[in-house]
Amino acid sequence: MSDTGQIRFRAATEEPPATRWTLIGLAFAGLAILVFAPLIAVFVEALAEGAIEAVRSLASPDARDAIRLTLTIAAISVPLNALFGVAAAWFITKFDFRGKAFLITLIDLPFSVSPVVAGLCIVLMFGANSAIGGWLVAQGYPIVFAMPGIILATMFVTFPFVARELIPVMIEQGRAEEEAALTLGASGWRVFWTVTLPNIRWALLYGVLLCNARAMGEFGAVAVVSGKIRGETATIPTTIEMLYQEYLSVAAFSLAAVLTLLALLTLLLKTLLELRHADQLAANHRH
Amino acid sequence: MHIEIDEISKAFGTTAALHPVSLSIPSGALVALLGPSGSGKTTLLRILGGLEFPTSGRVLFDGQDATGLTVQERRAGFVFQSYALFRHMTVFENIAYGLNARPRATRPTKAEIARRVTKLLELIQLPDIGARYPSQLSGGQRQRVALARALAIEPRMLLLDEPFGALDAKVRKELRQGLRDIHDTTGLTTVFVTHDQEEAMELADLVVVMSMGRIEQIGKPADIRARPATPFVKEFITA
Amino acid sequence: MSKPLIHRSPMPGLGLSMGITLTMLSLVVLLPIGALLLKGANYGLAGIWETVNRERVWSALFLSFRLSLFAALFNLIFGVMLAWVLVRYRFPGRRILDAAVDLPFALPTAVAGISLTALYAPNGAFGSLAAEIGWKIAYTQWGIFIALVFVGLPFVTRTVQPVVEEIEREVEEASATLGASRMHTIRHVILPMLMPAALTGFALALARAVGEYGSVIFIAGNIPLVTEIAPLLIIIQLEEFNYDAAAAIGIAMLLISFAMLLVINLIQVWSRRRIGYV
Predict the structure, then answer these.
(1) Can you tell me the mean pLDDT for A152-165?
(2) C111–A240 CB contact, under 8 Å
(3) What is the total count of domains within chain C?
(4) What is the dihedral of CA A50, A56, A57, A63, to 10 degrees?
(5) Does residue A187 sit at the C interface (CB-CB below 8 Å)?
């Protein structure tokens, strides 16, 4: 005869504890080596000669110019992409037209193009020896090796972020609320500001957050189009490369630490949004 | 197979899902566990199937203590409320699953498995759907496939959780007779859970009325109708 | 009867939203890609072939693709395991692990590049350990592999996680009541259900790795024929103002990307047809 108190039960849908803890251990070990170690290494290297040296290197003209340029680039390209994302999501979710799936594929395209190829495309389109680029240079508006090219390259690689986040959310929310507002006599803009925007604000913020993180950190595409001219077209990531190749390790890693803090802040805000407003975000993310 | 439930209780944390209940199910009977949601009927069924474990008490199969048997060892044919068919497998593969999962030594040959699956498809009167996927079936067809899958392992008993719950009224009536026929053909001890008193009364040999984790009354449908033992039973069966 | 191009709708803002969408899409994405394709057309297939068909280019393309494949395979296995652990198990630190999976998306590639190099260089924390057993990581193909694992890490986990969440317990229980051991259930029921999502994540990680530049060039060493990746070759050609050659390699890479995009879509169509969900 057995007494149930002495039998060790395991639910049918569970792995044995040994398996479970082995898998958890592997997850920790894998992420410790692959993710946490590089994260810590940035700060260790930045502080290798003390905090004062790290801060001093951030105050150098090169670093200050790079930070100013990166902030400017983000301040221009992120709002433009947000505008595109809202317009594209509105067009795609509020109207029915042929070729919608194809349009979505085109919007997603930058995710599957190498950043270097993206930069190359912009150089070929607007470079000094292309038809358009040559004409613009002659008018005194160079695109490549100048700020407009960097903005274009940044917009290219971050192009789908906002639209991708908004489209599933707006599909799920449907058109009924907007239609109700229209029957009540609201104008188009009024419907957008008072009905649609409040419903999509967290998803919009989420998309903008990811877009901004990528915009400030983009390296490959910007490296191709910027020419990396010190004090003029060197962004934070390209300046990091230059400093690193000049063996100015502390200076390179101090700037890298700034971007790492930005990445951590982005992740923190993203996690908070996911916790607080999960119901108003796209359920499935394709990055 | 004769099933004996001996003072089984079950607590989830501090809430008691089952107060000690005892029940004897004679071999070959068709028994309904009837009650509203939260009455403990599904918990009791899952304990019989080995999907849930009692906090105290014993389960005996043909007089042998089965409390400690794993779900695999119990060989209970279980039909889930959602049917839980494997969506990535054809109907044939679904039904053959339990036979293919056996260790090599006791696994039937491929030809034998095919023969048995074909027979089961005939038993549920759907001989031509072996190559289809569950997403291509109607609700009633899915229920019958789930039943065939459970029967394929040559179970010692048949346990069904709200087997007609997800079906519309017309299909429900048809399939009730289907279950009765299969029970009569196989002679398996069969326990099903339902909240529908009409269904329990019409189909079962023995009805167990449950409420709040307790058994209110056990009896033949006619007896329960004629002599409800408690005010709860009286209200529930006339509702 | 043919469908109208655009259905009539009471919604306002058709002209404005369509105008902004199509103008910006054309200006930022389509025209530049068109410029690359046009350049390739002018250069001609023979010219492209002549450029690509050189040992240095072939070896760079092959290196990029081969190491990306290995890295994506590693991420396929690790990513599925990670998704399972994060969804199914409860343990202290789970939330932090979950958030950490996204770090490779958020961390700029150049930062990842110099940081991984610092770790795996012969005098770095991991590199010096490896050096003791005579294993050189940074400035070899191992270094490239590690950088590509880093950038591809989130894809499989993030595509598989929602699918694990959606698996009904009853399906696993059904398998157990039919006599299947836990291992059998995992192999024959759970993994097949995760497969379409896992393959999608795998293809995304692969596509990302093939085009990756920033996190790789620092750790790669960039020795021609040995550790020189395809995107770097484009940059080298551009720095020599060799636009035709750069375009030829760029088109080769673009074709690889499109092929993988096609594969991803085919996987999704196939899985939707077969089991009714992705």
Answers:
(1) 96
(2) yes
(3) 2
(4) 150
(5) yes
